[in-house]
Each structure stands twice: as structure tokens, then as C-alpha cells.
Amino acid sequence: AEFGVVMMLFVVGLELEPRMLWDMRHKLIGLGGLQVSLTTIVVMGIALAFDLQWTSALAIGLIFSLSSTAIVLQTFNEKGLNKTDGGRSSFSVLLFQDIAVIPM
Question: What keywords appear on the UniProt entry (predicted)?
Fold first, then answer.
């Protein structure tokens, strides 16, 4: 299963053109940053309501703010959603999440 995920991410990297990435920069930073930030804050607030330490709450919030790019892209490809506006917006959010994992 891990090999399949690695191969899927490799294929995604091959399909990603630098020009497309530059065109998506506003959605990537705006939508992606908003999704990760809001999800982290909401989940962190819920975790703090359960009397967890703020560091644990932050870790849980960051974990819940991410999703699996390989699974979502495979589903989009199967349903033909990757060429729609919603599909491209979702892809930019997924790409931001992949980049956001690096400093975590």
C-alpha cells in the first residue's frame, strides 16, 4: 500500500507543470492557508475544551487539518473532477497541505 501511495505522488509530481503552479498561486496560498488555519484553530479549540495542554491540542489540530493527496486525486480522476474549477481548487488546497507538512 505504501508503494502505491509513493507511486501516486510521483505521478502527481510528473503531471504538475511549473506554469500551472504559478497560475494557481493565489488559490494555493489563499484557500490552502485558510483551510489549514481554520481547521487547526477549530480542532485545537475543541481539544482545549477537553482540558488538553495547548501543545497537544495544537498537534491534534495540525494532524486533523491534513488529508491524503493520493486518495483524493485518485477519486477525482475516477470521477472526472480533476478538470473542473472545484477540482483545481481542491488540488491547490491539497498541494498547500503537502507543502505545509514540511515544517511540521
Answer: Membrane, Transmembrane, Transmembrane helix
Backbone angles phi, psi at 55, to 5 degrees: -70, -40
Computed over every residue of the chain, the mean pLDDT equals 81
Cβ atoms < 10 Å from Cβ of 65: 20
| Sign of the CA dihedral running 20, 21, 26, 31 | positive
Lowest-confidence range among 13-22, 39-48, 69-78, 89-98? 13-22
Indicate the residue type of 42.
Answer: V
Q: Find the domain containing 70 and state its range.
A: 2-101
pTM: 0.70
The pLDDT of residue 101: 76
Q: For the chain, how many structural domains are there in total?
A: 1
